[in-house]
Amino acid sequence: RPAPAHRGIRRDVSQAQASCWWVPIRQQALVEAQAIATAWLNQARVAPRLAQRILLALDELVANLVEHATPAGASALFELRLVRDGDLIILVMIDEGAEFDPVTAAVPAPAASLADLAVGGRGLLLVRQLARSATYRREGGRNRVTLEFTPAQSAPVPD
After folding, report:
1. Distance CA 40, CA 14 (A)
2. Can you give the pTM of this predicted structure?
3. Integer Cα distance of 68 and 57 in angstroms
């Protein structure tokens, strides 16, 4: 693992269809993670509709990290892993932020009207709906979220 002071993105390739990057948690992380994942999904020849679901879930998870994982001005990294095993695509994100389980965290109840619609929390619901499965573990002071995607799953894809 690179030293926390590392400011750039680092990549470690361990297998032909598995890659790992360490990305700084900062505003640009949204753009950086999308660029990394898009390039990997294209190289892995993942179908466009499946790639769209993966990228949308990734965007929601990274946005939560940027907003909540580190105090303002703190330097931190998150680990992004993408693995292809046949038709199965696995996305793993690991961070050292405060303990937070996006898989079981409460989401807002449906609003009766637009005026009653609360801001926040709906991204987590979206992530759960986009992935075939989602798991969370806290180990060694680190959050680990694992999402699995397959082309055959019936998750909705926003237009």
Report:
1. 14
2. 0.78
3. 17
